[in-house]
Amino acid sequence: MDITSLLLLGLAALGILSSNTPITIAMVVLLLIRVLGLQHAFPWLEKYGLTVGIIILTIGVMTPLASGKISLQTIGQSFLHWKSLAAIGVGILVAYLGGRGAVLMGSQPTIVAGLLIGTVLGVALFKGVPVGPLIAAGILSLLIGRM
Fold it and tell me: Count of alpha carbons within 13 Å of 118, Cβ hemisphere only?
């Protein structure tokens, strides 16, 4: 087995140990692509994978609105309470950081492994939630002054 496959296997193991199902599934899928000789899919995944993932995430986040669980009235009331206004501000900040993170991850793919390992360790050691690599990259871009 080559070193890249061992790394993917190790990251999958970290995903299992930290109960990080998305990381585990992602690493196993990538490992299967390698083992099954489907490497021609990697350029497509590199180019469109993040966009497809963001689309799926956006669908998941917007489902309560589409299903009617969140009404237009509830959305309107969110502009009347300081906590909701703070949530809007934080949402704007996170979207900005995510955008910076996506650019940084695209321009410097060598940092992706570090962000991934940091996220897995954050989940495993601090009972975190595995949503951090994109935002972590955005914060990192502020720290290192890259965009």
Answer: 13
Assess contact for 27 and 9: CB atoms under 8 A.
yes
How do residues 20-57 score in pLDDT, each as one tens digit? 788 889 889 999 999 998 989 999 998 888 788 888 98
Full DSSP string of 37-69: T-TTHHHHHHHHHHHHHHHHHHHHHHHHHHHTS
- Which residues contact residue 26 at a Cβ distance below 8 angstroms, ignoring those fewer than 6 apart? 15
* pTM (global) more than 0.70: no
CB atoms within 10 A of CB 28: 16
State the burial class of residue 115 (Cβ atoms within 10 Å of its Cβ: 0-12, 13-18, 19+).
Answer: buried
- Burial of 23 by CB count in 10 Å (0-12 exposed, 13-18 middle, 19+ buried)? buried
Rounded to whole angstroms, the Cα distance separating 121 from 127 reads: 9
103 and 77 Cβ atoms separated by less than 8 Å: no
Contact present, 137 and 99 (Cβ < 8 Å):
no
113: Cβ–Cβ under 8 A, 6 or more apart, which residues?
A: 7
